[in-house]
Fold these 2 entries.
Entry 1:
Amino acid sequence: MDDQHDHRAEIRDFLASRRAKITPEQAVLPTSGRRRVPGLRREEVAVLAGVSTEWYTRLEKGHISGVSEDVLSAVAQALQLDEDERTYLFDLARAARPARRTPSRRRDVDVPPRIQWLLDSITLSAAFVRNGRLDVIAHNTLGRALHVPMFDSPTTDRRGRPNFARFHFLDDSSRDFFVDWESGAAATVALLRAEAGREPHDRTLRELIGELSTVSRDFRTLWAAHDVRIRHDGVKRLQHPEVGELELTYQSVDLPVSQRAVHDLSLYTAEPGSTSEERVKLLASLAATSNAAEEPTDQRR
């Protein structure tokens, strides 16, 4: 199956899945009789978007190249897409435009020293940098100590870098580590779906998605839902093997490491005065002691 066919299938399935989620009542449309399909019909979306049924049907079959931004915005509004879903739709349209040259394979980008200095200066929050494929490409001491089951997992790559998606779906110990495993798994897949829209020609990403789809039924089910997530923040509960259960707030912000790829800086922080803060401080102390013990003698003098 060629890339163009795959891309049309992505557009078709995404639009159909969003259409199925909206009821006539939510769209403020009159209803009568028994409906054979969940959500809206194609002709109803066409009316809401101000286009012909034939035109919308063609769009939902994946023929999105050349569609104007105004029309895409009208379709996004008709389908009640949120900001992340709207961005994903526009990414799909951009990727469908004829390329002037064969897209090159995207290279991995290491963080510059100044970013590692920034991470190392953060001592009471776990901090790490991840790329769009959810590889952890840099971290501070507490970031590694907090996610030690993932760093020690056999799912790390040949450079020893962990990947959130591989750990979630290919290592059973993740279910013990992530207290809310199901919601974390759904968010992980939604983040990968957004990256697939941004970078449809990323061979490494496609290989990752293919691997997870082949091995994990949970991943296949979540991937088929076509949910999208770009912004990543909230509350995370972890069952840490050294300090017990932790409840942390996390926030991810864009990090302009390179124009070739998306990178996020993620911070995990405990509420001041909470039991989790005490446990995070203990974990930081344990990690610092362990690091000091591992340093060569001449570096400690």
Entry 2:
Amino acid sequence: MAATDHEAGTDAGPDAGPGTGAASLAGKTILMSGGSRGIGLAIALRAARDGANVVLLAKTDKPDPRLEGTIHTAAAAIEAAGGRVLAVVGDVRSDEAVSRAVEGAVSAFGGIDVVLNNASVLTLAGTLELTPKRYDLMQDVNVRGTYMLTRAALPHLLHAGNPHILTLSPPLNLAPQWLGSHPAYTLAKYGMTLCTLAFAAEFAGQGVAANALWPRTTIATAAVANILGGAEMVRRSRTPEIVADAAHAILTTPARELTGQVLIDEDVLRERGMEDFSQYAVDPSEELMPDLYLNP
């Protein structure tokens, strides 16, 4: 891809999707941690429909009976949706894998426009139940992974026309019910948010946007089905497409106009004129389940 694709601003596209206006991610390159399934894949597919380039750094190389999808099935779906894709099998905890993903993005597509910090480990254990190994895993993937992937990509983001860092992490709600329920997971997710807000402050002068995005309700993903609440909670959830549409709206906004924010998916789309969210409900007859961290 020509370097001018990274020097241009947002473009008009024929398939902007609901609530996102006319801006497009056509020709933009997104470097994403994870993305084999769930919210990450939904965001990648939304970008692919514009004609974006997607670089996936994910470790699911072979099918797992507990989880749907691999990096290879995700890559095929992105291509089928109209995007170009580079699949990098690797772990975001590995500096070597991060370097391969960044170098691959630049080699294949000429630069990096967006870093999407999507990979995350979920363990809702209390302090006495959590093993040191699991604690380290959450810190390494959630916090260190966010920091190091962004750090590696920043030299290229600084040359992009509309550079964005977007992290899937929650607002900093210090209510005791969240601090006390699963401290290690809360620390790891809040660490992702703090990294992102720090990047926004550090690189504001260079025009690099950094924002966090979180859903207002639970989202129908494997984590919700397998860890949080099973089929009943899935029925009370929204589909990943609401987060994907909100992410698209953020990433097509001029970087200097939106940075240093912790954004909620529904709020982002409401601000862009959407009023009816029934299309995202798994079961419109069910009462939606609010997501973590949003209620005191």
